[in-house]
Here is the input.
Amino acid sequence: MKIANEVTLADLSISLPDVYGAMGCDTAFIDPVLEAETKQLLMELSEVLRAQYSFFSVEGVLNPTTQGLTVNDTFFSIGNIIARQLRGSEAFVFFVATAGDAFEQWQHASHIKNDILKSYIADSIGSVIAERVADVMEITLRQQLLSNDWNYTNRYSPGYCGWHVSQQEKLFSLFSDKNPCGIRLTQSYLMLPIKSVSGVIGIGSDVQKHDYTCGLCSYQNCFRRNRR
Here is the structure.
């Protein structure tokens, strides 16, 4: 199974509260100026956004003792938390999702980057888009798994839950395209465009998608912790 798709802003169903949440705002007290600017930026973005996602499934060997996942000849040291969550997986889905180059070019347009408020709103919108594209990817994955009566786990990314961000390079090496969805890696393993996510999902007949176990994770700045 290998799938790549492009999505528009309309496909993502992003609401104003979604953006406010990413900004850390109390939705009960939204300044009218902030609301107007957010609406205007979303309208602008709807004309240019071409977000993308890509994923494929592959067999692998999960070793709880070494807290590792081996795919072909590639070993991922994913840590105890992720290893536990992927237990029972019969295969693994590796994915990337991105707001795309068009978003980044729009974000860096002079009328946005030279305005502090617009720049902050645009950055928050980008964060929402990247995660929402990954959500859409999961919906596609779920549809693909129906024929096998398989389930899937949460998605986990390098840099979280004890999985070191440097293993991003190994993850990208599994894709047939060196730069899947146009995403490039810097020497410090940062993805460009910045508003991108990558990771792994376990699939199989006996796996389940649970709430994220934030109480077991030491990373205090995780966006999922902030949502709780």
